[in-house]
Write a structure and sequence with these properties.
Length: 154
């Protein structure tokens, strides 16, 4: 977590207040990202559906991002998805650490590893620095790579 805070600070993000990010790509830009990642997008569908089935009725969602942290696809219960949109967990939003600050997707991509963050616990550990993803109680991310270990998604 501290490495993520350091990277976020180095990117010029403030640990207090809101991160100023254009939350969504245009429909055309999102379609271009999805086209560039067509195989990943198509092969991920059944996995995402399976994962969503495993967390049904739990106020959760399943997210697929590209290797830069752009959310390409989201699945979840409609009432939860509408809440998630309020914090920019929606298709076309960037969750790269350099733009969004400390978050599970950004950390997984930066660290090349799976990550689980509990915002409330992180806030208690460091009262002076707020986790940028404070509105979300807990997030998880797992990056996926191709056979050459190049990051494809989170």
């Amino acid at each position: 977590m501290s490495r993520s805070w350091d990277r976020s600070l180095a990117a010029g993000l403030s640990p207090v207040g809101r991160v100023r990010v254009i939350d969504n790509l245009s429909a055309l830009e999102l379609q271009r990202i999805r086209s560039m990642n067509r195989d990943l997008f198509n092969h991920s569908q059944p996995v995402m559906e399976y994962l969503l089935d495993q967390v049904s009725n739990s106020q959760s969602m399943v997210i697929l991002s590209d290797h830069k942290g752009i959310l390409m696809h989201t699945m979840g219960e409609l009432n939860f998805l509408s809440k998630a949109e309020r914090v920019a967990l929606m298709c076309g939003a960037s969750w790269n650490e350099s733009q969004r600050g400390t978050n599970a997707i950004g950390i997984a991509l930066a660290e090349f590893n799976e990550v689980e963050i509990y915002g409330a616990g992180a806030d208690r550990k460091r009262q002076t620095i707020r986790v940028w993803l404070k509105e979300i109680l807990g997030t998880q991310a797992l990056e996926c790579t191709d056979p050459r270990s190049q990051v494809l998604c989170s």
